[in-house]
Amino acid sequence: MAKRSRIRASHEQDTTIDCFTACCFPFRIYYLLFPSPYPSIRLVSCHDTLDTARTLYSRRFFFFLILKIYLIMSEKLPAQQKSAFFSFIKSLATFKGDLASLTAPPFLLSSQSIVEFSAYWAEQPSLFVAPASEQDPEKRALLVLKWFLSTLKEQHNNKDEHGKKKRMKPLNPFLGELFLGKWVDKSGTTQLVAEQVSHHPPVTACNIWNDEHGVRLAGHVAPKASFSTTVHIERKGYSIYHIDKYNEDYLITMPKIHIEGIMSGSLTPELSGTTFIRSSSGYTAKINYSSKGWMSGKSNSFVASLYHDDHEKEPLYTIEGQWSGEFTIKKATTQQIVETFSTSSIPKTPLKIAPIEKQHPLESRRAWRQVADGIEKGDIFTIGHEKSKLENEQREMRKREKAEGREFQRRYFSKMKEDPVAERLAEGIKGSTSMKGDMDGHHGIWMFDEQKYKRVQQSLINGSRSPMRPRFDSGVSGILLDKVD
Hints:
alpha+beta; two-stranded parallel sheet
């Protein structure tokens, strides 16, 4: 007979949960996390130290988290997936470090690799190139801010353009993984090169450019996820947006992310903190992100201001709204509405990529093709088998490189010790000292290498080919971006 505990609560006594302790799965996980005779979760008192209080709160939170997820997912998951899911929850609760290295159950995986996320910067090329056509530096800075805000929805929303929920966990890119493509519309041709330049820690670098308008964006990002009472994602790194015509640069930093809705089973990303866009013309955009509160507010909210030099208290423009929906641009002095912009008002331009059979073995969709097929079909065996196969091949390559005393050569990017442009622009932002860690951290600075790119393009033009059995580290096979239809 299962033992039923009773609810008891007082200021000094423990609180126990009314459950069947002998057979309830959440209790078994809780015992593994915090072994004790009973699942006792004591109330925090004024006599507790801060560390003790945090420990008690953490244990209380994790128990209710496990119980809630169990109740939700018991109804939603097929029987064959429950064991893997609850093993993942146990790992999540006890894990310390970067969650990116944590193996998620196959049915939680997205068929998209993180290296593809770079494409979100320019899915609306007309907005990406618009600043190059504006002669007034103040209005150019405003257009750059508008373009940046327009990219946030696709980067962070938990639903696609059809309203379908995205899967929770994208694929972790392997070292050297590539994603190449281009957008072709009335703005001309906008090209994309993205590469996973580091695996430990994970760093993705990208370069996006439009030669007709003389605009380019180059950047690198190193995401690090952690778990306390929710999932937090911190992104080190930055991007530089450049306009040839005015020899003008913009330093762009990235917001932090936290995942809400874990207790309800409806996971929703929210942005938090403050980010900046600083131009070499002296204009700064400051963006503060917020989420829906307990009693008021809206999800995905932000307030931004654009000001010149150090005159933060005398903004030229203010922008307020939701990065996932609609926002309003106003002149700060008169509160006159300049524009009300909807993120869905401008359709996305499809990204053109080479057919999979013509892609380089390192290109993301070719490398992950079998895994992606398994995900779309819900074939757990294929997902696990093909994913392990690819990851083991990568481990063997790293072992060979180490044994031979050589380092993997990045195809399009090079690691630099410093970036004078970014450093100069960061100095113009208040609190730039604290920003330096966010911009650099421990992963270094990765910049697009024009010489490497030209060598690869020339090799493709000359018809060079890799061996008959292409390796992941083979050199020049692939297809020119210009040849993509």
